[in-house]
Amino acid sequence: MLKDWLKLHYLRSVSLAQKRALVNFFGCPVDIFAAGRSCLSDTGILCEAGINAVLKANENLLQNDLALLESIGSQFIGFDDPKFSDLLNEIPSPPLGLFVKGNINLLKQPQIAIVGSRNPSPSGKKTTQAFAAELTAMGFTITSGMAAGIDRCAHSGSLSVNNATIAVMGTGIDRIYPATHQALYREISEKGLIVTEFAPGTPPHRAHFPQRNRIISGLSMGTLVTEAGIRSGSLITARLAAEQGREVFAIPGSIHLPTSRGCHHLIRLGAKLVESVQDITDEIGHFFNPAPAVAQISRESPQSHFQHPAEHPLYNLIDYAPISIDQIIALSGLTTEQVSSILIDLELRGLIAEMNGGYQRLP
User: Fold this and answer.
1) For residue 298, is it within any domain?
2) 120 with 130: CB under 8 angstroms?
């Protein structure tokens, strides 16, 4: 059965829509390849080139992929499988199926996609991890693309609470990208779920990632953009989510931060402005009854245990937009040594972060 799904998946002269139509007509890929020219022609689905492609499909070419999938513990599930995502089947141009590795049951769980910049600010990383952890604690599965930056933070935040995270890859199931995410890939495949529609061995390619993004948003009830530049690929995911009839959420940031502009753009277009997890559950709570956040994940640093951080020296001089150390010294009237010592203390407490040549307050 698997080899017939792969034979169908690899047919180049047959479109994705035609492949799904053939499965619906014949009932399964096995019967498609058992049918003769006359039967295939009578369906009205294929042109002559498509019929010839089906008749000439060679399963011997699949042996290496079949062996590879077995060796890494991966499998392919078709769109008609009971374990396949119902939400994903509803989108325009849904995949024929998915190569999967890990806990397949997560596909049917209520999901929130979290996406954003590959080069986020320290504040963006922290906010993403906190939102992912809190949403996971409430019973959502966090879905993202295993890219550097916000994607990685989303997966890590979810894994810090439990194992409910899905990574949608833009490569083959055996091609880890970026290569630096080997450990993250192993952890997600062991505890969560790795999915891709691309055949084993498929390398990273620019055109594959927008295609991958429709699956991230398609699996999810809503897409949250936590931090993104105006040209970020995460805005493509947000647009796809809107086109799929799903909710789009965005977290605003500093007007001085380039990676806030994409979120502000989405909000102008109608995305829901998000300041807390409740802003998300208010929109989709009637579709899903989330568990009470009894052990709600705080977005403050665990070191910020004092009652009045605003009383800390220099804290009120530092806002969410970066300020240089020279400006802080001039405004405070303190010596360079005194300011440096206090800034280190504030960083250790998780109240500020150094970036873009200055210091800025963290949420």
Assistant:
1) no
2) no
- Does residue 269 sit in the same domain as residue 320? no
Q: Which residue has the tokens 């505890």?
A: 191
Q: Indicate which CATH number applies to the domain containing 252.
A: 3.40.50.450
Residue 117 near residue 60 (C-beta atoms within 8 A): no
Angle, helices 234-243/261-269, rounded to nearest 10 degrees: 20
**For 8, phi and psi rounded to 5 degrees?**
-65, -45
pLDDT of residue 174: 96
Tokens of 191: 């505890």
Query: Which residues of the chain, if any, have pLDDT below 70?
Result: 286-313
Name residue, tokens 């969410």: 320
Model confidence pTM above 0.85 = no
Alpha-carbon distance of 126 to 134, in angstroms, equals 12
The C-alpha atoms of residue 285 and residue 112 are separated, in whole angstroms, by 12
Residue 25: both structure tokens together: 């007509």
